[in-house]
Amino acid sequence: xxxxxxxxxxxxxxxxxxxxxxxxxxxxxxxxxxxxxxxxxxxxxxxxxxxxxxxxxxxxxxxxxxxxxxxxxxxxxxxxxxxxxxxxxxxxxxxxxxxxxxxxxxxxxxxxxxxxxxxxxxxxxxxxxxxxxxxxxxxxxxxxxxxxxxxxxxxxxxxxxxxxxxxxxxxxxxxxxxxxxxxxxxxxxxxxxxxxxxxxxxxxxxxxxxxxxxxxxxxxxxxxxxxxxxxxxxxxxxxxxxxxxxxxxxxxxxxxxxxxx
Length: 261
Fold this sequence. Notes:
261 residues; mainly alpha; Fic-like fold; 11 helices; globular
């Protein structure tokens, strides 16, 4: 839920509060507007990723298109949903000043060329023909794939959500199950400017991905700390509930929770 909500807000199109979005997902009610539809789509994408995590490799282009279709359904015109862009009108620009920060590759290079190359890179053995080991969650399918989707910008919209979804799919497919409980987008949301600068510095410095990799590692570490803090808080609450049950006899755990609060 946390990743679904934060990723939607990060994209810039979801205008909803965290509490309202969580309540909607918990109760399973339908979306009332496009913002809520984006959250639901991202939530479905996370569930889709979990279902598909045991079925690598990354197949071009079906899996990427399926992910994009999931995160953009009912938020874009149907002609753009689950389809690669067919023009060069898409750029990454400052929404206030209009300054263009990134012009993606020609749309004619996206499928099959760039997408096929991206999938070959993701599916290659760790040491392939270069003899260099690349740590899976950090580079091979996590951070670099995240960067490449953002750089190629293969879709009319929803590129960021798709990139972050692919990141999660890859690290989970490699057995790093803890990432399912680490909402990276919530950390990125706290440092949106640094997120953008990590892309720009990498591109402007002859595609040196060190900037982006370092930034993403920092986000992963912050997400890990958040998770540990959450676990410790819940353990403390459970211990307090157990103590309440010992103090006030003949009450259930639910009643003890209410009294504790």
